[in-house]
Design a protein that fits this description.
Keywords: Membrane, Transmembrane, Transmembrane helix. The chain is an alpha+beta fold and 261 residues long. The protein has seven helices and nine strands, in the order αααααααβββββββββ. The strands form two sheets. Strands 1, 2, 3, 4, 5, 6 and 9 form a seven-stranded antiparallel sheet that branches. Helix 2 crosses helix 3 and helix 2 packs parallel to helix 6. The longest helix is centred in the middle third of the chain and has 44 residues.
Length: 261
């Protein structure tokens, strides 16, 4: 039996669209991970039911403040087709407000969760102290190191050594693939970029003709990560240290943490 087209649109707007929007917004603040179609559909429907439920309650409360603006709830539940036809305008207003409010709730909920995610690194030491260990989350290590653990007002800079015995690159992370699977993952560096071969001791600036470098994850041996303040001239240079003789020698910027693929 094929459902009525209008009913299908209504069910999609109420039971799918808000949750789908929330899920798409969520992928902007966390790495997507593979899951079964049933689990993904269940998450979308559950999110939609919660968002639409809150939206319906809010719209009905608003309608109770001004009589005649929205259709009567009791008569709607009676299923009187004549009442539906006579109050088509009020029904349209009700559905429009409900869906619009559900979309707004999805957006605000995502913003709130994003704020909580940024503050999670502050609460994490306390959480570890209370639970006696670290937390386990389905989160890409790249996403965690490049975004979640990056202090406010700082940018992630990396020194990347390629395998086997490949060159070493230093630069600012422009963007990256945040998928859970390492296969097919890529990291992009932006200018200014420093590079040196396995035999060289000093970094050389990469030609300004190249604005970006795309590095595949399977070509990376190790990544050294450091967080440096934005808009500082020294941030674009590899970290240097002095030897006992006072001679300047190059040292990898292992100020942050080393993250292996």
């Amino acid at each position: 039996m094929v459902p009525d087209t209008r009913l299908s649109i209504l069910l999609f707007a109420v039971l799918v669209a808000p949750g789908l929007l929330f899920d798409l917004l969520s992928e902007r603040r966390r790495a997507a991970y593979s899951e079964s179609a049933f689990r993904e559909a269940s998450r979308v429907v559950l999110s939609s039911v919660i968002l639409s439920g809150v939206s319906v309650v809010a719209v009905l409360w608003i309608g109770s403040l001004k009589k005649g603006w929205l259709p009567d709830t009791r008569k709607l539940l009676e299923g009187n087709k004549r009442y539906y036809l006579d109050h088509a305008r009020e029904l349209l207003i009700l559905l429009t407000l409900e869906v619009a409010l559900a979309f707004l709730l999805a957006w605000f909920a995502n913003m709130g969760l994003a704020q909580m995610s940024r503050k999670a690194k502050i609460r994490e030491p306390l959480s570890r102290a209370l639970t006696g260990g670290g937390s386990i989350r389905a989160t890409s290590n790249w996403y965690r190191a490049f975004r979640q653990e990056c202090p406010s007002g700082h940018d992630p800079y990396v020194t990347i050594r390629l395998r086997p015995d490949g060159p070493t690159y230093f630069g600012k992370v422009a963007y990256y693939t945040a998928d859970m699977k390492a296969e097919g993952r890529e990291l992009v560096l932006r200018q200014p970029i420093q590079v040196k071969s396995a035999k060289d001791k000093k970094y050389c600036p990469l030609s300004s003709d190249y604005q970006r470098i795309v590095i595949r994850a399977d070509a990376i041996d190790v990544i050294y990560i450091t967080y440096r303040k934005k808009n500082t001239q020294s941030a674009d240079k590899p970290h240097r240290s002095k030897a006992k003789t006072g001679r300047q020698v190059e040292a990898p910027p292992a100020v942050g943490e080393a993250a292996r693929k």
